[in-house]
Fold:
Amino acid sequence: MSDQPSVSDTPESGAVASDPATGRSHDPATGHPRPPRREFKARGSFVVRCPGCNLPELNCLCPYRVEAQSVARVWLLTHPLEHHKPTNTGRLIRDVLPDTQVFTWYRTAPDPGLLALLDDPRYAPFVIFPDDQPDYADRVVSIEAVTETRVAGRIPVYLLLDGTWRQVRRIFRRSPYLDAFPVLPLHARRETRYRLRKPASSEHLCTAEVAAELLNQGGDADAARVLDDYFDAFNDSYAASRRFEKIAAPTPAMQRLMARRGA
Ligand SMILES: [Zn+2]
Structure:
């Protein structure tokens, strides 16, 4: 919920034949290098992305994709401007937990699918949002409320508002259909490991990190570990591709994910 405004990641252009190491493309007829295209300076403009994971092909994430089980669910209410950013980490959650629901937030028309789920008594949704304003203090609960929900046989749901901090505030303030639900602030000790956007502060976690923390605190430690590792693999892969480096040996997180896939 706290992804920061994106460092621009321009979608790929048609320069498929260019070499990420040099930015030079080759004339298909002669094999001779061509001078770098003009848009070489726009970072990412020539990047070839894997259709499976949407990461630069240089360090594709697909070998590390692995699913996990959790009692709690995650629903994402994503700002429309956030959906297609390749640096968005909300999609990592759905890769690991296939039951994750993703809705697009529109100010004027709430998603009917989301409204139906909010109405479903099997689920106990918690709106994940900081507790720093007095006007909704009566709705604020702690992570123990998630445990109580589990004991009572309902499925706890972490409803994550996904966007920049400004977008998240807007979603929270302008979605009256969320007003009936408890607000769960995340109190995490960890600092962000996200390297793809500049955080407002080191305590500002990105969406996948928030989900991993909540899962861990709420009793789904195994799913939290997998998501954490998958996020690390994403983070390292993407950052290396931005430096035009191929990751030579899998990181410890990547090794754990691959072992799990093989199991
Ligand atoms: Zn891939």
Q: What stands out?
A: Residues 80 and 106 are 7 Å apart (CA to CA). DSSP finds seven helices and five strands in the chain.
